[in-house]
């Protein structure tokens, strides 16, 4: 689908590019070993041409140090580009150092649904000796608990005598946060192979007015051969757009997934599912789920069009396999014709290539005979010439358990389009 043309300040971007080239040439004459960093900077500027950025973003690139992670976020999420365009990105630029590691918190994006921190880390020696184990977030003196933390995309540069990482950390709040204070601190927990654990704390204060969530009532019922669900409302914030859905309890099919969700505004700009972050929230078997797509918060429109590529569902009561870990026996639905093997506390399913559209079953939700959860440990995925093999490991247990799958390719509806008026 062709994108709408965006006005690009070609002369200014060309000037930025030429200035960068001249800088590379000067630094090459002065010190050859720093050339890789300059080349990465030039590469990021060239990326700007490929994503056809706005004048506002070009201006930010010209002045923000360590902007690689921001460029990566803009490339993967149109909502982040809107945030920069509308000057909602907030510069912080605070640096703290410890154990030879310099950590700079460059900027943040905050709303009531989440917070994203953009940071750089650099050292004069091998950074592979460092592991970033956790990043705690505090509002004032109180830690924000329960937030899902997602590592952002990272850019890594090795200059020969210095190593440099530009990345981000994404927080998704389970409940909308109240900004009783705009004073925060991020505590980065590292493990140094030689010196052990240490932490770097960076305090910061948000200056921007926090954007309020826009709630759009929808109440649109979708009926697919008697299987119903309702899009109850749409919630827009700068970081994401949330689509709240309720599943009809009377359905005879268990809806497992909504594929290829997009939102399009009436001018024709399409926003896709969140790629780097939380794409869904809630348990669909409880009858409620929230789907997240890239934000269009800053766009004015008379309506939104929601597109659902496909709805995947299987008969109710047949959405799980039953495993006896003691006897190493498996009971499965009749339609489930893939081979299953049980070894120790692992369950492996060999799916013929293409049968499940390359998607994983995600056998993470398991319940013991007594109704208590069977603890999920880890999951691995491999391929050979014929099969895609998904292996799931659980806690030590020698009884029976129901293991529910979260995806099975069996579309009951395709190419669903709903127009939602905003006024």
What does this structure look like?
The chain has five helices and 27 strands. The protein is of the alpha+beta class and 423 residues long. The strands form six sheets. Strands 1, 2, 3, 6, 7 and 8 form a six-stranded antiparallel β-sheet that branches. A five-stranded antiparallel β-sheet has the order 11-12-13-17-16, with no helix packed on it. Strands 5-4-9-10 form a four-stranded antiparallel β-sheet, with no helix packed on it. Strand 1 (90-98) and strand 2 (101-110) form a beta hairpin. Helix 1 (10-30) runs antiparallel to helix 2 and helix 4 crosses helix 5. The chain is globular, with a radius of gyration of 24 Å. The two termini are 27 Å apart. The model is unreliable at 1-18 and 20-52 (pLDDT under 50).
As a whole number of angstroms, the C-alpha radius of gyration is 24 Å
User: How many β-strands, per DSSP?
Assistant: 27
Beta-strand residue percentage: over 45%
- Low-pLDDT stretches are 1-18, 20-52
Total count of helical runs of at least 4 residues: 5
Mean pLDDT: 84
Principal-axis shape equals globular
Distance between the termini: 27 Å
Largest sheet: 6 strands, antiparallel
SS content category: alpha+beta
- State the helicity in percent bands: 10-25%
């Amino acid at each position: 689908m062709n994108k709408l043309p965006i006005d690009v300040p070609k002369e200014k971007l060309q000037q930025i590019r030429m200035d960068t080239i001249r800088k590379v040439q000067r630094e090459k004459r002065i010190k050859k070993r720093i050339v890789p960093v300059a080349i990465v900077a030039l590469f990021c500027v060239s990326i700007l041409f490929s994503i056809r950025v706005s004048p506002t973003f070009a201006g930010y690139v010209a002045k923000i140090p360590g902007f690689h992670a921001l460029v990566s976020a803009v490339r993967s999420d149109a909502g982040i580009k809107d945030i920069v365009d509308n000057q909602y990105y907030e510069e912080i630029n605070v640096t703290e150092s410890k154990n030879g590691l310099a950590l700079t918190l460059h900027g943040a994006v905050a709303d009531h649904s989440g917070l994203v921190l953009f940071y750089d880390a650099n050292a004069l020696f091998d950074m592979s000796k460092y592991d970033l184990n956790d990043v705690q977030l505090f509002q004032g003196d109180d830690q924000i608990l329960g937030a899902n933390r997602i590592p952002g995309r990272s850019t890594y540069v090795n200059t020969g005598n210095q190593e440099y990482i530009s990345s981000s950390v994404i927080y998704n709040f389970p409940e909308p946060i109240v900004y009783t204070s705009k004073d925060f601190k991020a505590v980065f927990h590292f493990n140094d192979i030689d010196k052990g654990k240490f932490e770097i704390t960076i305090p910061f204060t948000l200056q921007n007015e926090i954007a309020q969530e826009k709630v759009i009532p929808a109440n649109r019922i979708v009926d697919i051969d008697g299987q119903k669900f309702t899009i109850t409302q749409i919630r827009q914030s700068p970081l994401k757009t949330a689509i709240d859905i309720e599943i009809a309890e009377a359905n005879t099919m268990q809806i497992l997934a909504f594929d290829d969700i997009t939102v399009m505004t009436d001018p024709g700009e399409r926003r896709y599912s969140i790629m780097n972050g939380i794409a869904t929230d809630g348990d669909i078997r409880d009858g409620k789920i929230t789907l997240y797509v890239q934000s269009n918060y800053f766009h004015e429109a008379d309506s939104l069009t929601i597109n659902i590529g496909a709805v995947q569902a299987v008969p109710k009561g047949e959405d799980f396999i039953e495993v006896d870990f003691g006897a190493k026996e498996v009971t499965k639905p009749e339609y489930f014709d893939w081979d299953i093997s049980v070894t120790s506390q692992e369950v492996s399913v060999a799916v013929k290539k293409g049968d499940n559209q390359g998607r994983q079953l995600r056998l993470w939700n398991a319940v013991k005979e007594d109704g208590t959860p069977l603890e999920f440990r880890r999951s691995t995925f491999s391929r050979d010439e014929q099969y895609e093999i998904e292996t799931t490991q659980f806690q030590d247990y020698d009884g029976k358990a129901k293991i529910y799958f979260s995806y099975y390719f069996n579309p009951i509806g395709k190419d669903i389009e709903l127009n939602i008026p905003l006024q």
